[in-house]
Amino acid sequence: MRILIIGNMGYVGTEVAKSLRARRPDVTLDGFDNAYFAHCLTGCGFLPERCLDQQFYGDVRGTSIDLTGYDSVVQLAAISNDPMSSRFQAVTLDINRDTTIALAKASAAAGVRNFVFASSCSVYGISDGPARKESDALNPITTYAKSKIGAEQELATIDPNMVVTCLRFATACGMSDRLRLDLVLNDFVACALSRQKISVLSDGTPWRPLIDVADMARAIDWAIVRSAEAGGRFLAINVGSDDHNYQVKELANAVASKVPGADVLINTSAPVDSRSYKVDFGLFRSLAPHHQPVVKLDESIENLISGLKRMSFKDGEFFSSNLIRLKVLEGHMQAGRLNERLEWRKCS
């Protein structure tokens, strides 16, 4: 079996590659990445890409990737959160939507059996009432969410001989060899350790479903071999666990309970947060019973604490550091390495 992970050198992709190698030691496992965040290693003792058979480099927007012979393609490459998508709106739609569609079409033409797309539960936007199911109306608020649902809609029309799985992931969290701190739980742990204070910018009531990055990898392991009999040729599916829907204030208090002396400050006068949704993961539970999330909230927090301590992390101003993905891109641009379209300039 041959698997290609596109976007393997990010926060999620780094852990997916390691997990797939551990679970499937005999497969051919390759990676393709633009290397925006390749240098953002966090406490690991070796380059994570050593677990791959080959690492390819290039821009997914302008590179013709040879997909011949691959059984499964995992598309993780993306402008990956709301602040980045707000700053780079056209690029977000280009990479997250248009390029994903082009990759899927190329995969189908090359005879790839399974195409896996990392989508997001953020497509539900502001959702009052019951937890959102896949059949419920969508309400994408941000450019990021709109790019994900735009890709999903086109992927549904791709060649019927290829199985396409859109994994609508809950909000990512947990430790990675390329850690991000621009995610709600990761942010709270970093604030607790470095500032002894967790500042909740909303009133704490918005809902977020969470999934540890290790459990994201577990779901991808299911999707790369999913048959059309398990959900249909095209499937958009919520990925997470029903008991991992949390209000933001619950997350802050859970972190504070693990870091002695950390206080929680909630902005009770904050405007309404545009991202609040509970999600129903019943379909994923029924179709993938052996690939369900197993990492509990306390474990994610404890792993983050251990990982940050291993890094000797003490930076109370980490919002301006390489642990924030937007800051990494802005740093490349300020140094003249990237242009406004996030294309690498030639080395001189």
Could you explain the architecture of this structure?
- This protein has 348 residues and is an alpha/beta fold.
- It has a domain at 2-179 and 209-243 and 276-295 and 328-334: NAD(P)-binding Rossmann-like Domain (Rossmann fold), CATH 3.40.50.720.
- The chain is 33% helix and 17% strand.
- The strands form 3 sheets. A 7-stranded parallel sheet has the order 3-2-1-4-5-6-10, with helices on both faces. A 3-stranded mixed sheet has the order 7-9-11. The chain has a two-stranded parallel ribbon with strand order 8-12.
- Helix 4 links the parallel strand 5 (114-120) and strand 6.
- The radius of gyration is 19 Å and the shape is globular.
In terms of topology, how is this protein built?
Elements: E1 2-6, H1 11-23, E2 28-33, E3 54-57, E4 72-75, H2 82-87, H3 89-109, E5 114-120, H4 143-155, E6 163-169, E7 171-173, H5 184-195, E8 197-200, E9 207-212, H6 213-223, E10 234-239, E11 245-247, H7 248-256, E12 263-266, H8 282-287, H9 297-310, H10 325-334
Parallel strand pairs: 1-2, 1-4, 2-3, 4-5, 5-6, 6-10, 7-9, 8-12
Antiparallel strand pairs: 9-11
Quick one: how many beta strands? Answer: 12
The CATH superfamily of the domain at 2-179 and 209-243 and 276-295 and 328-334 bears the name NAD(P)-binding Rossmann-like Domain
Q: What Rg do the Cα atoms give?
A: 19 Å
Strand-and-helix sequence, N→C? Answer: EHEEEHHEHEEHEEHEEHEHHH
Q: What general form does the structure show? A: globular
CATH topology tier name of the domain at 2-179 and 209-243 and 276-295 and 328-334: Rossmann fold
Strand-residue fraction?
15-25%
Given as residue ranges, the uncertain stretches (5+ residues, pLDDT < 50) are none
